[in-house]
Amino acid sequence: MLGFYNYTVWLTYGSLVSAVIGIFVSLAGHGHPYIGAIFLLISGLCDAFDGMIARTKTDRTEQEKQYGIQIDSLSDLVAFGVLPACIGAGLYKASMIFDPPQDPCLVARVPYPVYVGIFVIYVLAALIRLAYFNVQAEAGCAAGEKVQKVYYGLPVTSSALIFPTFLLLRHLICADIAIGYYAVMLLTALAFVCKFRMRKPTLRTVLIMVGIGGLEFLLILLVKYNGFRAF
After folding, report:
1. What pTM does this model have?
2. Tens digit of pLDDT for each residue in 46-92?
3. pLDDT tens-digit series, residues 135-158
4. What SS3 class is residue 152?
5. Backbone region of residue 227 per phi and psi (left: phi > 0; alpha: psi in -120 to 50; beta: other values)
6. Do residues 78 and 13 touch, judged by C-beta distance below 8 A?
7. CA 24/CA 26 separation, integer angstroms
8. Count of CB atoms situated within 10 Å of the CB of 187
9. Do residues 181 and 122 touch, judged by C-beta distance below 8 A?
């Protein structure tokens, strides 16, 4: 069989599986963006540790290492590029439905093609960043450079915290600010491709972010199943 299937890639595969499920759930029926956000958080959790686990296998061949780099980026494009866009599409669909009936929110007053354009820009920005990152990583390896300790631009994996946070904000301020999700998408897309420096997170920082993601996971479950209006 083609490919590699040892434990170093299991979390990457798991992130992709979670993302694909999240895409279908987000777009199902009248839209279920909050459930989609749960799968986005799961993908983020998998991504937080896949590299660490891969590096524990010290006898990896160069082919295994390159394979791991490539599938990580491909998985990230689906999980943190396509899935957030589908959550946005699910949010648009869900915002058309109100119980009890009320005036349409702002998101309903903007033509859907505008949002499709935003989704395209966001996914394209994620693709460009991931492809550029891979090219730079390969060039650095070929030159024998050490692993850099900084990122240039916002990592696409940050979407695993950005968008669930925004969805929770809709309930904390007791207002339907769904249209703001698309503004956040545009700003995040811009941050993906802007060349500013960010220090790579330490293990402690990663654990803190995982803790924040876990809290968001629990809060979204609370919002979804404890009587709050959510989609």
Report:
1. 0.87
2. 998 888 888 888 888 888 888 888 899 999 999 999 999 999 998 88
3. 876 665 554 555 567 777 899 999
4. strand
5. left
6. no
7. 6
8. 13
9. no
